[in-house]
Amino acid sequence: MLYVIGLGLSDEKDITVNGLEAVRKSERIYLEAYTSILLVDVPKLEEFYGKSVTVADRDMVETESDAILDRASEIDVSFLVVGDPYGATTHTDLILRARNAGVPVKVIHNASIMNAAGASGLQLYNFGQTVSIPFFTETWKPASFVPRIADNMRTGSHTLLLLDIKVKEQSIENLARGKKIFEPPRYMSVSTAVNQLLTLLEEGAEGYTEEAYTKDTLAISLSRVGSDQQVIKAGTLAELAEVDEEEFGPPLHSMILVGSRLHDLEAEFIEAFSVSTKEKSQ
Ligand SMILES: C[S@@+](CC[C@H](N)C(=O)[O-])C[C@H]1O[C@@H](n2cnc3c(N)ncnc32)[C@H](O)[C@@H]1O
């Protein structure tokens, strides 16, 4: 059996009881560590499971899936995913390959940033398409996600923005094991995301439209959701741009652009996170 197991959002103890039982009876255990990171290192996972874990990079999952699926019809193999297994597209592909190879698959779900975004107080039912924001490069300022935000805004829906993670393939194993790596990974912070959004607006980048957002659009930052260091802040993009980057805390970060169909209860909930209210009350 191939068990595809969600680890949840924070530490080694967020795995479900069913997930843990599957891990403990598996002969081989892989951890997918390139679409997201768990906020603890692999040795901590290994100690908790009492089993060794192989860190699988993108290449292994996407092109060498035969190694992961090897003999999985006869023995138990676990494939661990941070968050929920269906919270990233690559895992659907592995499940399809397993099915095609006649390997039975069981998915064990867990919390994902896709539902933990509800910690903002916004109703999950009122969200539209989720988008990912890539890092700007020296020669490229991608804005292709902006029309999808505009689509959501037209229907009054909120938009969850997932922020880029850049890590060299060859560093993933060391990173996951908490070892030193030559080139540290880059996790996009809320400050970088806000600056990039405002740059696209100021430069009138191709693809940018004010139907998607302006500097007065209400946004919510989500840092380390599900952990003890969770930080949530709400304000217009212009206000969030003024917040000291340190205040958002360590990665991982996400953001929400708030749509116009804001229910009174949602508005009341996010008031507590408001950066402008804080200033007024200080
Ligand atoms: C490609 S998604 C993978 C999602 C994961 N499979 C899940 O189900 O949650 C990774 C992105 O989700 C967001 N994210 C994941 N965990 C988070 C957390 N605990 N707090 C805030 N954002 C998080 C970050 O923007 C990160 O770059």
From TrEMBL:
SUPFAM superfamilies: Tetrapyrrole methylase. Pfam families: TP_methylase. It catalyses: 2-[(3S)-amino-3-carboxypropyl]-L-histidyl-[translation elongation factor 2] + 4 S-adenosyl-L-methionine = diphthine methyl ester-[translation elongation factor 2] + 4 S-adenosyl-L-homocysteine + 3 H(+). Pathway: Protein modification; peptidyl-diphthamide biosynthesis. It comes from the Eukaryota. Residues 1-241 form the Tetrapyrrole methylase domain. One of its GO terms (molecular function) is diphthine methyl ester synthase activity. S-adenosyl-L-methionine binds at residues 9, 84, 87, 112-113, 163, 225, 253. In the N-terminal section; belongs to the precorrin methyltransferase family. This is diphthine methyl ester synthase. It comes from Wallemia mellicola.
